[in-house]
Structure formats: structure tokens, C-alpha cells
Amino acid sequence: MTAILKNLIGGEWVDGAGITRNINPSNTNDVVGEYARADKAQTEKAISAAKAAFPAWARSTPQERYDALNRISIDILSRKEELGKLLAREEGKTLPEGIGEVARAGQIFAFFAGEALRLTGEKGPSVRPGLEVEISREPLGVVGMITPWNFPIAIPAWKIAPALCYGNAVVFKPAELVPGSAHALSEIIARSGIPAGVFNLVVGSGSVVGQTLLEHPDVAAISFTGSVSTGRKIAQACVLSTPMKKFQLEMGGKNPLIVLDDADLKVAVECAVNGAYFSTGQRCTASSRLIVTAGIHDRFVEALTERLKGLSVDDALKAGVHVGPVVDQSQLDQDLRYLKIGKDEGAKLHWGGELLNRETPGYYLQPALFTEASNAMRIAREEIFGPVAAVIRAKNYEEALAIANDTDFGLASGICTTSLKYASHYKRNSEAGMVMVNLPTAGVDYHVPFGGRKGSSYGAREQGSYAREFYTTVKTAYTNPG
Ligand code: NAP
Ligand code: MG
Question: pLDDT of 155-176, one tens digit each?
Fold first, then answer.
């Protein structure tokens, strides 16, 4: 067995108070690594190290921040195959998806390296004679990051990079299921020239490490991505803490993909397969509701089913695999529970949904397609977070739009159509933060805002230059030059 990988606290790699064992979901006999688990006291130490390091980093020059973030980017990109393999091994997305995600993390650091050079303020005349007004942005202080398991490096990157770019100190709590990518990223950050204590890694459970971040008065803000139920707890804790914390929440989705009669069938099927099933459907932007108008419904279901039959579901590291395993037993149980719920509710399980045996023991599930579903069913209202999608039949565009918007969520939505009129109407009337036309609901750019509406998101947008709304606070200064 290799060494237990440590936490990064105040620039030191330290042992923990227990061990997190990282299991490969493609082969549960394969232990990817063992990671020191931080307790409450160590989390508090990380917070005080961040607090101590913050003032100097807040005063660092744009050049220093550019240099560090750029170094991190170069390091990540130069190791994308190796880190992509680690990611695919610990999370179960396919190797190309893993490598793609690592590359994305590198690009995000490059983007925020540039942003560090672009931070400016405003200066203007006062409404009162002779006075001057300046508006500037300052960092928040110590920011706690609580991330989910499904994008083990990209989501941490899109929180850590802007936090550091704008002069904050960070305490990073990754999801316990995926400590490997978090540890690798932390090692890269530790070597980037960023002063000790500015960035800290504490691996551990939400209830211990996460809770400590939420309760601690020296944590100024929390950036969270995960489920709605955890998000709600985070919001409550941030409001109840003294002083109150700034927070942003990125949560679940029940994202619709509309397919209209006039859609290019091939495009629509590709959008559905990619959006609903790639990354094992474990994406907050996955299309889990396929809303299909009557004239194309049967052709679409048939073509999609044919496409699903051709997908290879297997070990995430094998070449040519399209869909890897579900991340762990508890997520698999949830997927199976919803397959039963859908059948009990009267939807037709048209294809898939069986457990699969492969060479190695893993959480393999045949991608599942429900038809004859209604938007009132639980499988159409609640996030499943697995390779499960439901086709809902609609009379026409108007009804499809109404169904698409009839949800507690609002992260991403899509439409497949060759009609400019419907595409344009949909972009304006979809109640989602991100709208895709003839594209899968999942898959976004990194230089533009990411986030949703309704139950999917709360607070400032992430990514692109919009990230500074969360990671900075605005100061208005008045001067009487005399
Ligand atoms: P989760 O169970 O909510 O966990 C997310 C993070 O919160 C983990 O690090 C978890 O720690 C931590 N946590 C759990 N309970 C906590 C508590 N009481 N206090 C503080 N922290 C706590 O979500 P998940 O299962 O990892 O991820 C799946 C969910 O994430 C899905 O709902 C998905 O839609 C959502 N997601 C959303 C986006 C988006 O941007 N909108 C992106 C990706 C995923 P441990 O698990 O380590 O204990
Ligand atoms: Mg794992």
C-alpha cells in the first residue's frame, strides 16, 4: 500500500485523524489511494492559517497572482493525461471525459490568471461639489469551498481560481468520494508560489469539516456546489452565523431537452444521448426530461433506442467505452429506486435499467429510457443523478415549453429545432440559467457565466468575469481634496 496522502494546512502536509479510502467504481477491489481525514480541530487550524495568510495575499500584485495562476494552469495542462486517468479511476467517468475535465481545469486557471491583470475600479465626480468618489473591489477574506464528487477537478478549479485571483484565502473541502483529484490539484497549487496558508486542503466529511467551515466566524464566505438538500442547510448556517457569511449555491437540475417535429433527427438523438447519458448522467446539467412533440415522437424514440443499444458501458479506463459506472453503491441504489418509482407511477421502461456484470466488480447500470412519462411523475420532478431519462410527449411547441418550465429547477435547458422562430422564442422564454439550441444541455464554455434559476442556484453566478461578483466586495470611497 502506498503512503497516506495528507492535508495541506498552513503550507505543511499534515496527517489526519482518520483515513478516507478512495475506491474505483469500475473495480471495487481497486483502492485508488488513502487520504488523511481532517477533524474539527484541523479544519480550525486551516481556517486560522488562511486568516493569517490573507492580508499579505490581499495586497499581492496582479503580477504575482498572474504568475501563480498561470503556473498552476501550465502544470495541470502538462499532466492532463495522468490526472485525467486518476479522475476517471476515482469517479468513473470515461478516460476522454476525465482528460477533458482536467484540461478544462487548466483553462480555467489560465482565464483567471488573465483576470488578475484586468481588475480595475471606477473614479467619478461626486454629486456634491468638489468631492471625488471611487469604487473599488476588495477580496472577502477566508472563503470555504464545499464541492461535489461529480466534477472532481473542474468545480474546485472554477471556485479556487477566482478566489485566489481576487485576493482571497481558501479552505477547500472536496467531496469525500473523490479526494485524489483534490489532492493532486492541491499539490500543484502548493508548488505555484502562492504563500503558505493562502490555500488549504482539508479532506473530510460534510458533517465534520463542512460544518466547521459553516460555523466558524473567520470564514467570510462559502461557495457550495452539491444537492439541494445540503444547499439549504448551507444557506441556513450562513445566515445564522455571526457575522453572516456571503454564500453561493449551485445545486441540482431537472433539465429539459425539447425535440420539435422539425428537428434534425440525428442532431436531436446526439443531443439526447450526450446530455442524458454521458458521464453516466451524473451531471447537474444532464437532460433528464426529453420533451418530444407528437409528429417526431415515435421516430425519435426508435432512433434513440438504437443509439443506446450501441453504447458500451464498461470500465471507465477501457478504450472505446461510452459510459462508465455509477459512482458508488448509494448512488446506484438511488438510481434503482427511481427506476422502480417510474414503473410504479405508470411510465414505461422502454430500454435499459439492468445491472450489468463486467470483468471487474463495479457499479454498472445499463442506461435507462422511460417513455409515456408525464411531467407530474416523480421521475420527471426529482433529480435522479444517474443514466436515466424520461420521454414526455407534447402536442406542440407551446405545450412543450410549458412542460419544460414546469419544474422546481432552472439550471440548463435545450431545444432541437430547425425553426429560427421557435429557437428564438425558446431562448427568451425558457426559465433556465443556460439555454442550448441544437446542443446537449450539458457542456459549457469556461469564459462565460454558469448558473441557474429557481431551485438550481442561489447567489452570484460562477465562472467567467462574473465570478468576481462573488469573490469580491465593493467599496465606495469619498474624498474631499480640500
Ligand atoms: P452533496 O451530497 O450535497 O454534497 C456536496 C458537498 O457538500 C460534499 O462535499 C459533501 O461532503 C458536503 N456536505 C454534505 N453535507 C454537508 C453539511 N451538512 N455541511 C457541509 N457540507 C456538507 O452532493 P453530491 O452528492 O456530492 O453531488 C451531487 C449533487 O451535486 C447533485 O444534486 C448535483 O446536481 C449537484 N451538482 C450541481 C452542480 C451545479 O453547478 N449546479 C454541479 C455538480 C453537481 P461529503 O459528501 O464529503 O460528506
Ligand atoms: Mg472514489
Answer: 999 999 999 999 999 999 999 9
Catalytic residue among 90, 91, 250, 383, which?
250
Query: Terminal CA-to-CA distance of the chain, rounded, Å?
Result: 71
3-state secondary structure of 421: helix
The domains found in the chain, sorted by start residue, are: 7-251+456-479 (3.40.605.10), 256-437 (3.40.309.10)
**Centroid of chain to Cα 193:** 27
Catalytic residue, candidates 238, 271, 284, 416: 284
**pLDDT tens sequence across 402-454:** 999 999 999 999 999 999 999 999 999 999 999 999 999 999 999 999 999 99
Whole-angstrom distance, CA of residue 244 vs CA of residue 242: 5
Cα(181) to centroid of ligand 2, in Å?
Answer: 10
Pocket (CB within 6 angstroms of ligand 1)? 146-151, 173, 175-176, 205-207, 210-211, 214, 225-227, 230, 233, 250-253, 284, 383, 385, 411, 456
Query: Has 284 been annotated as catalytic?
Result: yes
